[in-house]
């Protein structure tokens, strides 16, 4: 998949663990920063480090927002293409754990 040209600052993804069972990545976003378009190959769990607002861009120009609360986890299935943007005015971080035993 060819990623569209970026107009936003990239978020910083730091892989903390990557083994045969899980990949754990901490994502740090300045206001307006984005992950870039991607698709998860496995079910994943997100644990916000900070409160904040995500703007999630979806194929076809659709968007949605998600309000994050520090320490309140959520999960998503594999396979949906998306771009995640810090839609707030403060830095934002979360830890994402992908479960390699649950492929998409």
Automatic annotation (TrEMBL):
Residues 26-96 form the Cupin type-2 domain. It holds the Pfam family Cupin_2. InterPro entries: Cupin_2, RmlC-like_jellyroll, RmlC_Cupin_sf. It comes from the Bacteria. This is Cupin domain-containing protein. It comes from Belnapia rosea.
